[in-house]
């Protein structure tokens, strides 16, 4: 058990120095830009500034699904924002997302460029813009939004809570790991019970709710996140496994997972995406880049 006497909080918290954690060099307690930085702009109406994390991948999966459905207006340029280097604090990025977090989208198709931030808001915006992956009727729409908002509220316990303390924190704190492992297992059980009776989260239809939840909880049960599959006994969640496999069998999901990805197999990384053909050549280009 952690020694609870080791740290006594002072009366007023002050920011002294980086704490040695995984993202310590970029974390700070104030908002706003740290430096001037212009963002690149490509030829498509939709400009996405992102990284292939679970929050980023939600958006690229939806864009690839929209394109697969024939919505050519969903063509997009995906630019890399390297959060480990602090790109999210550049002036143009902060101009799109004052919260300095990926993903951020700029829609230049209207009279004025429209900034869209928060992955849930981006998913809803694109689903409404193209009238796809969200049911039209109020009941189906509400069932979809229930799970979309569930994800937005729950995933910080998985990422910022469990993932941080299990994988990234410079010290292993049993209390923190126990607390968040308990919560994440409860969330997996919520999903498992629901998916035992429903093919997809909103019922019989694949929607933005599945697209939002898959990169987080699908990734967890598929063993992609935090090296924690065994620790969390993810094999127990059979219905989540079934659903995750079903979602992952979709070609657009595989493509969406590759965009802006900087980790894993080189053949699964497409750092920037500007055209559908980028997926065909990326493996060769990456391998050439790796050996040159
Ligand atoms: N609620 C936000 C969370 C986005 C988020 O946490 N993004 C992370 C990467 S997954 C990020 O940009 N972190 C950089 C930082 O915290 O400085 C959303 O869903 O869009």
How does this model look, in words?
It is a single chain. This protein has about 290 residues and is α+β, with helices and mostly antiparallel strands. The protein contains nine helices and four strands, in the order βαβαββααααααα. The chain has a domain at about 140-255: Glutathione S-transferase Yfyf (Class Pi), Chain A, domain 2 (Up-down Bundle). It has a four-stranded mixed beta sheet with strand order 2-1-3-4. Strand 3 (about 105) and strand 4 form a beta hairpin. Helix 1 crosses helix 8, helix 4 packs parallel to helix 6 (about 210-220) and helix 5 (about 175-195) crosses helix 7. The radius of gyration is 20 Å and the shape is globular. The protein starts with about 45 loop residues before the first strand and ends with a helix. The model has no long low-confidence stretch (mean pLDDT about 95). The structure holds glutathione. Glutathione binds next to loops.
Structural class: alpha+beta
> How big is the Rg?
20 Å
Mean pLDDT: 93
Q: Percent helix among the residues?
A: 40-55%
The rough form would be described as: globular
Bound molecules: glutathione
Beta-strand content bin: 5-15%
Task: Determine the CATH topology of the domain at 138-255.
Answer: Glutathione S-transferase Yfyf (Class Pi), Chain A, domain 2
The CATH architecture of the domain at 138-255 would be Up-down Bundle
